Amino acid sequence: MAFVVKKNIRGKDYFYLNENKRVDGKVRTKTIAYLGKIKKEAEKKASEILKSRERKIDKIVLVKDKKTDHKKGTMEKKNISIEELTTFCKRKGFVYPSGEIYGGFAGFWDFGPLGVELKNNIKKLWWQFHVLSREDIVGIDGSIITNPKVWEASGHVSSFVDVAVVCKKCGNKTKIDKYEVGKALCEKCNGELESKGEFNPMFATSVGPISEESIKAYLRPETAQLIFANFKSVYDNLRLKLPCGIAQIGKAFRNEIAPRDFLFRSREFEQMEIEYFINPNEEKCPYKIPNVETFIYSEEIQKKNLEPIKMRIKDAFEKGIIKKEWHAYWLATELLWFKSLGANLENFRIRQHSKEELSHYSSDTWDLEYKFPFGWKELEGIADRGNFDLFQHEKASKKDLKVFDENSKERILPSVICEPSLGVERAFLVFMFDSYFYDTGRENIVLKIHPKLAPIKAAIFPIVKINKDIVRISHEIYANLKKEFNVIYDSGGSVGRRYARNDEIGTPFCITIDEEGLKKKDVTIRDRDTKKQIRVKISELKNILAKLIEKEIKFEAAGEIFE
Amino acid sequence: MAFVVKKNIRGKDYFYLNENKRVDGKVRTKTIAYLGKIKKEAEKKASEILKSRERKIDKIVLVKDKKTDHKKGTMEKKNISIEELTTFCKRKGFVYPSGEIYGGFAGFWDFGPLGVELKNNIKKLWWQFHVLSREDIVGIDGSIITNPKVWEASGHVSSFVDVAVVCKKCGNKTKIDKYEVGKALCEKCNGELESKGEFNPMFATSVGPISEESIKAYLRPETAQLIFANFKSVYDNLRLKLPCGIAQIGKAFRNEIAPRDFLFRSREFEQMEIEYFINPNEEKCPYKIPNVETFIYSEEIQKKNLEPIKMRIKDAFEKGIIKKEWHAYWLATELLWFKSLGANLENFRIRQHSKEELSHYSSDTWDLEYKFPFGWKELEGIADRGNFDLFQHEKASKKDLKVFDENSKERILPSVICEPSLGVERAFLVFMFDSYFYDTGRENIVLKIHPKLAPIKAAIFPIVKINKDIVRISHEIYANLKKEFNVIYDSGGSVGRRYARNDEIGTPFCITIDEEGLKKKDVTIRDRDTKKQIRVKISELKNILAKLIEKEIKFEAAGEIFE
Q1: Which of A54, B279, B312, B426 is most solvent-facing, going by the fewest CB within 10 Å?
Q2: What local confidence, expressed as pLDDT, does residue B285 receive?
Q3: What is the ipTM of this complex?
Q4: What is the pLDDT of residue B67?
Q5: Lowest-confidence range among A70-74, A89-93, A556-560?
Q6: CA–CA separation, B26 and A270 (whole Å)
Q7: How far does the CA of residue A347 sit from the closest CA of chain B (Å)?
Q8: How would DSSP label each residue in B295-338?
Q9: Residue spans per domain, chain B
Q10: pLDDT tens digits, residue range B410-462?
């Protein structure tokens, strides 16, 4: 059946001749022709076209195209569960259970086309902020399997041990500390726990295919030790000066008894980590503490059962709540990174470890925590590790790991004053949760993610597919932008449908080429978050898009506002 | 001892008061003051300074500073062995043996600060070229450990088997095919081989810490299967259309019996891979074959014991030497990628697998090979895999993996017409070998690596450390450039020493701030490869540097030539 459709695109009417056809058992609508802007002329033209195609005129009905109408509605923040996020990520091609066609594999996930771009952007922006833009930090990339003596020296082989337990009542599997055996009860139902024996969460494997010569080795359970083992070579080869840091991004593996909460606790994950070294006799931090505010949950506040207090990190340091300046500096720096990429700091807090909770190597630890739908959970622990690790490796390797400190003119074993260590997947979850909005008018999800993080920076639409000039120019613009940005060409379905689809995957800008633009050599850019539109010259588009992505200019100031 | 030094910097004389001091048992030279450009005045000023510091005037000798003189010499390509490259990489902080303080671990390597930047640049530029800039390819990032049924279906568990052998005469360890047992002799000395049993090069591990419930799983020996296992979800979620590709960069592991040749054959490595899918009934390639020339080593040429023939890939296809257009397209595209990043195509060839050599799943395979110091070796195999893998997974998972093809309007199981699969570390070696030059004048290595690949894009020098204005402006320029590029600030040693040090690590541009520049608000940029210098306004520096890195402008055209 053929019919005339009126589409209202930004306040103006456009008429099209459409046709329904049955393909593969499904009804598909195809646009046969664009009929102009005036109703009478459109109906006349439609009759002519159908006659010329020697087709029976079924009926010419005027249909108002609902999809492209501007619907009024509000943009609401939506708090979703981790299960809802998992489903969303799978449906849109962000994350799949690994080996899904075989039922998945607990604790392992594959990143799909949108997920890999978001993850790469997170890693790239972390590296840019923490390594490339700083004078005092360099990077390394250690291997996942290294000499097992590294893990003997660090204590992971002997002490990194938990006890697997199963609840006799509800069957819940979990792990407990070995000192808790016989004391701890099930966290879910208070039932009695049955011990299934001690285990080391390091995945073991055998290196060397000739069995009598093979060596038991481990998949690294953390990236930190690769930094310590390489510390002296890196310091000397790169002529570093204290204070300085070594950063690393890479995979780590832990054989969790109960992987859960989607990407939050998986068996294979990726860390972004810095070990920051100082001369232990010189604890003064030469950098200003960045000006950020957060909820402070000190040991004292926790013991008194009080609520965390909102204040500037700088003030918390000056009031003595955070004892070390370096600690305050790194906590604020990490919060600043999240803030600079659009995370909502209202969902963050910093929590001090109690004395009982502290690792044996740490004299003070603050966790950066985020309010997940399943509770406040650690994003990164920022520990004062001292020189525990370098000392262990010096002892075990019998190599002198001391380095020359330019300032004090002495050879010393540096201390790790801070160890910001963030899971890539946890940052991924933070940005997904904080940007998940719902448009009540269009009834669809809007992922208000920072343009720098967005997997796709812009979608280019021809407003109609049947005008050859529009399609040609759209393709040219697409090809030109694609050299520099990850953009897509989208011509499927109504303009409204295309907006909705791109809102859902977080594409910050939609670029439309219409008839007016053909004449004026301009395009419209539509902003995902405000739905405002501006007109911009094609010759300036690349430059303006680059600035919009970097948030160097305000959207409204980037072109002529267009309703 | 104090003494006056004359430095000749680009044709002009500058005088400095220097002093030798013994620090930590080493003699170090320190500059006390800049004395101006005229010899007599300089000596007078030197006496005054030494008097004012109430120091005994040891002696004022005029020393000509040799290091900063322009030495004449040629830039020679240097062919080095893999061992020499290994030593160079270690010394400059590119690559270290993993766990080196414990003697390393055969087949595992850690990338140091310069190595991680080069490796990241290779990966980023590969992804940009193969994924982001193309309309037909999307990426994924699968996990290293996945459901082991993936490896059962692909045949890796049952058929990916070799026999470990040790030569009874020379002790050389290697692997042979199981059909060669009792037939093959030692490749080194023709000695008799002793079998040490069959082995599967997949590293195995145990997933799940409760032993009676744990599952034997594998570290992936290739990235390809993660693409096949996710194929249908990716195709449907992303609304792909055939022909199209799915790309992945990630680690893979093989338990090699004899890891060797530095990064060439290691046990942990990284692949950059595309599986390119077509409708098996539609083999026409819609893209033009890129215009590149290489040495063609077809099966026929090999059998006739002839030399490879140099010709354009396009011509090899038209003459029927390369049978499939898609194959020719991808071989040329891969060569183009290497060429676009400065690799020397004279060191490349493409070699066809003989019928006996073909894998069971492939109907035609061409290897892209590179002339390593240890012989012609494979960089990437480009196989026509057909639908072997999707078929295996469909059978094993009992899931329908067919997808809808828009063109033929039918549901089909696509074929993999090409599988370009390149090792990141092998590309790393190619770029290192091809850019390794030697400056006979300065007597130092010059790493003539493409600026886009270079770990550090520019070094910023104050020409003298004792002029506060120069130091301040140098720091400002450094801080400003650092926001966008990986640049370093280098004020250690003579200017000549700083040039040499940066040439060695491949820094393409050295930016010097001198007294003339202070007045004129400009700097000099020195080109690593030609040693030419230009003067450029500070206000234009960022823009010009960006264009120089991208090779969008010629160096000589970027500013005023300066001798």
Answers
A1: A54
A2: 95
A3: 0.89
A4: 44
A5: A70-74
A6: 44
A7: 29
A8: EEE-HHHHHTTPPPEEEEHHHHHHTTSS--HHHHHHHHHHHHHH
A9: 2-64, 121-153+206-426, 161-199, 456-562
A10: 999 999 998 899 999 999 999 999 999 999 888 899 999 999 999 999 999 99
On chain B, the residues whose CB falls within 8 A of the CB of A91 are 237
Asked if B113 and A234 come within 8 Å (Cβ–Cβ), the reply is yes
Interchain CB distance below 8 Å, A104 and B147: yes
The predicted-structure confidence for B205-219, as pLDDT tens digits, reads as follows 999 988 888 999 999
- Note the pLDDT of residue A410: 95
Contact A102 B197 (CB under 8 A): no
- Which residue is associated with the tokens 């030469």? A286
Q: State the pLDDT at residue B203.
A: 97
C-alpha B48/C-alpha B52 separation (Å) is: 6
Q: Does an H or E element contain A541, and which?
A: helix A541-549
Percentage of chain A beyond pLDDT 70 is: 94
For the residues A163-189, what does the mean pLDDT come to? 87
Cα(B74)–Cα(B443) distance, integer angstroms: 10
Q: Which residues contact A518 (CB under 8 A, 6 or more apart)?
A: A467, A469, A470, A473
Domain A456-562 maps to which CATH number in 3.40.1440.60, 3.40.50.800, 3.40.50.10860, 3.20.20.140? 3.40.50.800
Q: A207 and B255: CB-CB below 8 Å?
A: yes
Q: Do A110 and B226 touch (CB under 8 A)?
A: yes
The Cα–Cα gap between B209 and A257 comes to 6
Listed residue (B290, B298, B382, B304) closest to B345, CA to CA: B290
Answer yes or no: do B105 and A238 touch at CB < 8 A.
no
Which chain A residues are within 8 Å of B104, Cβ to Cβ?
Answer: 147
CB-based contact B151:B202 (threshold 8 Å) = yes
Mean pLDDT of A515-538: 93
Indicate the pLDDT class of residue B354, thresholds 50, 70 and 90.
confident
| Interface probe with A: pick from B21, B24, B114, B116, most Cβ of A within 10 Å | B116
- Inter-residue contact A512 to A495 (CB < 8 Å): yes
Q: Are B138 and B231 in contact (CB under 8 A)?
A: no
Cβ(A287)–Cβ(A327) below 8 Å: no
Residue type (1 letter), B285: C
Pick the residue from chain A with its C-alpha nearest to B199: A209
Which tokens sit at A355? Answer: 């004395």
The pLDDT of residue A202 is 96
Nearest to A103 among B113, B147, B251 (CB): B147
Is B215 within 8 Å of B206 (Cβ atoms)?
A: yes
Q: Are B15 and B5 in contact (CB under 8 A)?
A: yes
pLDDT, tens digit, 9 for 90 and up, residues A199-247: 899 999 999 988 888 999 999 999 999 999 999 999 999 999 999 999 9
CATH homologous superfamily for A121-153+206-426?
Bira Bifunctional Protein; Domain 2 (3.30.930.10)
Distance to chain A for B335, nearest Cα, Å = 19
The residue of chain A with its CA nearest to that of B141 is A111
Given a contact cutoff of 8 angstroms between Cβ atoms, the answer to whether A312 and A326 are in contact is no
Instruction: Look at residue A454 in the predicted model and tell me its pLDDT.
Output: 98
Mutate to test the interface with B, among A146, A202, A428, A487 (most CBs of B within 10 A): A146
Please name the amino acid found at residue A13: D
- What are the chain A neighbours of B199 within 8 Å (beta carbons)? 209-210
Q: From residue B26, give the alpha-carbon distance in Å to each of B18, B22, B29.
A: 16, 5, 10
Please tell me the distance from the alpha carbon of residue A259 to that of residue A268, in angstroms, as a whole number. 10
Question: For residue B248, what is the nearest residue in chain A, using CA coordinates?
Answer: A116
* pTM for the full predicted model: 0.90
Helix (H, G, I), strand (E, B) or coil at B268: strand
Between A449-463, B32-46, B229-243, the lowest mean confidence (pLDDT) is in B32-46
| Per-residue confidence band for B287, with pLDDT thresholds at 50, 70 and 90 | very high
Q: What's the pLDDT at A67?
A: 44
